What we know:
disordered N terminus
Amino acid sequence: MAPEQTAQRSLFAAQALLPGGWARNVLVQWDAAGRITGVDTDARAPAGRPVAAGPLLPGLPNLHSHAFQRAFAGLAEYRAERQDSFWSWRQLMYRFAAHITPGQMQAIATWLYVEMLEAGYTRVCEFHYLHHDHTGQPYADDARMSLALLHAARTAGIGITLLPALYQSSGFGAQPPHAQQARFIRSTASMLSLLERLRPIAQAQSAVLGLALHSLRAVPPDSLEAAVQGITALDPQAPIHIHIAEQQQEVDDCIAWSGQRPVQWLLDHAPVDARWCLVHATRMTPDEHAAAARTGAVVGLCPSTEANLGDGIFDLPLWLQHGGRWGLGSDSHICVNAAEELLLLEYGQRLSRRQRNVLAHATQPEVATAMSLQAVQGGAQAAGHGIGAGLAGIAVGRPADLVVLDAQHLALRGLPAHSMLSAHVFGSQRSSALDSLWVAGVRRVTQGRHALHEAAAQGFIAARSAIIAAQRAGAIR
């Protein structure tokens, strides 16, 4: 999608959510690179310049995505075993992943990223482990799958933090990988070579390049150490993400292998700091909450996927007591809706604690406002855009990643701005209350729609149909 051709690098909003809270009559200005150069409050609307159709919000980073799984959403909602779990879902996902081509990956990701933009996400952290062909052999261009994702992000116009994932074993103690995992497997040396290859390409499209360690069960200790050292040598600020403590079986297996729980082991054996994102971390002890929060790492929460897979509920109030930061991801993309993830996050806490407005706090009693500000701050850090950079969101020096709500949407009409955000999160009834969205100062969504909506949707449908057909053909053989 070609960048919007305009010299009007500004937007006026009657109400805007700034890092310090709600402000009135806000004029935001940015430069040709899409960086905010001015945020003026109590300003006047400049004649002939764009005026927001409703409250102005900071764009939300989506800090955990497996793009290919969008095409799998809805295909595992039947009982495959006497007692289904994450592990039985994973077997079905493996079978689906076996048939995806690079072209289909690109089509799926392009549609997904269009969906994300229409849903209020302005950047995605792509945790990418589908590296090789269906036999497990590298493509002639070893970066082919990664390039498909970068191309999809560039086409849709979403910011991307690409996180190629290291995946080497099927279980703790360096157990050999299963045949179904052949597409994921890389040596540490080949991973570092891939990162070196991708770095200039990512920089050319203003993408952030980091490293994903799939999990402690999939990355042996020596490989973890070498990979972290390698990415740090390449870029000392590169983000590092890892799935951890998601399932009880994972915790039990880690204890059997090492005598320690997963988070405890990681903190004792890896240089965890503010670059790290601990994805899920659903099953931590109180001591692990305190110790992990002290590192400055972000916890990546994916409420819709964690509910879909039966992971459990993260104890977010305890994490916040220790000053921990968090952000949101849509993970398996059973849901692609930033507002709905916020709703599910708060509702999970309400159900587990039997309280209301759990994630509000003394300085910000509006729960939707409090959650939005925290998710933007933690998400920016996990995406590699917020470490040591001060305030995240609508602030000078930050990317002009902006979202405007539709003040005429039935759920929002006539409400004050903070209540409009609450209605967007809790009362829009699965209909979109988003009017427009900018990424790095370029308008990507207008009146709730991306310019590529129809074309990208058709590409997605064709790719998904082809994968399902190939899967069925394989089953018949």
